[in-house]
Design brief:
The chain is an all-alpha fold. The chain folds into three domains: 98 residues, RNA polymerase sigma factor, region 2, helix turn helix motif (Rna Polymerase Sigma Factor, Chain: A, Orthogonal Bundle); 31 residues, no CATH class; 49 residues, Winged helix-like DNA-binding domain superfamily/Winged helix DNA-binding domain (Arc Repressor Mutant, subunit A, Orthogonal Bundle). It contains nine helices and no strands. Helix 2 packs across helix 4, helix 3 crosses helix 4 and helix 8 crosses helix 9. It is globular.
Amino acid sequence: MEKHCESKKRFGKEDGRTEARNEILESFIQEWGGRAYQFAYRLAGNCDDAHDLVQEALYRVMLGWDRYQTKKPLDAWFMTILRNAFLDRCKRYERKHSVSLDCPIGSGEGHSLADVMAGQDEAVQMRLERQETAKAARRALKGMRREQREVLTMCDMHGLKYDEIAATLKLPAGTVRSRIHRARRTFRGMWPTPAIA
């Protein structure tokens, strides 16, 4: 809501450039709004977050309109901004919600979250195993080059098609395919080998 009010203050005056921008954006939203929402939904995984991502991307487009090069396609620029808004949101979420199992809890002597959960049922153990798998996947992804991590995340984690990734990253579809192939091979090579008891 604050952003909406701020944008009204900033963009309230209707001069020739603002009117032209608004017409371009209105036309863009009518033509690409549905596709933008679908892309946001695939990234976010739910309706509310997808709606918020599209709104955030539109807000960022309005703020950065002076940087837009009109000879380049608006849809590719918008989708890049939308993707970046999603990545920013993921980083904020991880910083806010990460908890280590080794973190001490309460004022108890040496008790950690892992100690408390050790006596729980099998469902907790399965959840912990999934968390460990996710942690291993994050470690493997962190060890990869940025462009490999990016295409792998977009394709295998968010289910985007090659042509959607190509449009977002402004790359040929063949380049996207080869990057995904190399990224998967790198990821498998970085996956931890289970210890033999």
